[in-house]
Write a structure and sequence with these properties.
Elements lengths: L1 E3 L2 E6 L4 E5 L2 H22 L2 H4 L5 H33 L7 H16 L3 H26 L19
Antiparallel strand pairs: 1-2, 2-3
């Protein structure tokens, strides 16, 4: 609604309709009359299904696709943030000798219920693991007194 020079104007830009009058009631009455005639002419011409058609379902589908994409991205962000929060809250535990001893006890208990063939294979596997870990255990018990020089351990070249 616009008031200019003592007249009131009601304008609907989508339909290019304008009603005017000396007061608001006259402007509104003229606007309603113009709109009624406009709609009547459209219906008489047979163009009503085209002019007053509802938005196509394609538009609704587009909106639903956009909303579902947004929702999926939001869920991914929330999951990543939750994972980071959990990683920050839960401390990383280290493996101790007591943990290794507990696991060895569990293996020994489980070994008692195995067949002879399975026991022999498990004993061989444990023997191989213990031989490979012997140098690690020795360095654990007797750490070097001086820090190791990294230059003493050359890095392999990438072309090798």
């Amino acid at each position: 609604m616009i008031e200019k020079d003592g007249r009131f104007f009601l304008f609907e830009p989508g339909l290019a309709l304008i009603g005017s009058g000396a007061n608001i009631d006259e402007a509104y009455a003229q606007y309603v009359d113009l709109r009624r005639r406009y709609v009547s002419d459209i219906e008489m011409s047979g163009l009503a299904p085209v002019v007053f058609a509802r938005p196509s379902k394609g538009l609704l589908k587009g909106v639903l696709v956009e909303l579902s994409t947004f929702l999926a991205k939001t869920i991914l962000v929330v999951l990543v943030l939750a994972g980071l929060l959990v990683a920050a809250v839960i401390p990383v535990t280290t493996l101790s000798i007591a943990d290794v001893a507990d696991k060895a006890f569990d293996v020994a208990v489980d070994m008692q219920g195995m067949k002879e063939d399975q026991r022999r294979k498990l004993s061989q596997s444990i023997g191989e693991i213990s031989r490979q870990l012997r140098s690690f255990a020795e360095s654990w018990q007797n750490p070097p007194r001086e820090p190791l020089d990294p230059a003493a351990f050359p890095r392999p070249r990438k072309d090798q």
